[in-house]
């Protein structure tokens, strides 16, 4: 874990997120905490990660999400060298095909 990220304020934020009970609460909280563009950027990165795990091409991803190749590359780097956060969530949400699990 990145020590620069691990602060009391960040921990409180993450605890607040974990306390949310449903989608309506998530919408309310994130709309208060973030700008619409910040939420859209986060959701775009999440969609890019999902599409990369589905072995979609950069061109296809850029066309479907509007993400720049720089954003796609950054997300790809996180998928390949990060902390497995995306994959953990994809697995829990059942968002990827079983074959990707077999490739691990």
Automatic annotation (TrEMBL):
| InterPro entries on file | Trp_repress, Trp_repressor/repl_initiator, TrpR-like_sf, YecD_YerC
User: What Gene Ontology molecular-function terms does this entry list?
Assistant: DNA-binding transcription factor activity; sequence-specific DNA binding
* Superkingdom as given in the UniProt entry: Bacteria
List the protein's name.
Answer: The TrpR like protein from Eubacterium eligens ATCC 27750
């Amino acid at each position: 874990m990145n020590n620069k990220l691990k602060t009391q304020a960040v921990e409180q934020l993450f605890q607040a997120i974990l306390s949310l009970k449903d989608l309506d609460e998530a919408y309310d909280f994130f709309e208060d905490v973030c700008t619409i563009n910040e939420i859209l950027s986060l959701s775009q990165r999440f969609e890019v990660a999902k599409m990369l795990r589905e072995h979609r091409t950069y061109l296809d991803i850029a066309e479907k999400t509007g993400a720049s190749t720089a954003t796609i590359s950054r997300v790809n780097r996180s998928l390949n060298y990060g902390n497995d956060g995306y994959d953990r969530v994809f697995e829990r949400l059942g968002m990827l095909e079983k074959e990707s699990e077999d490739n691990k």
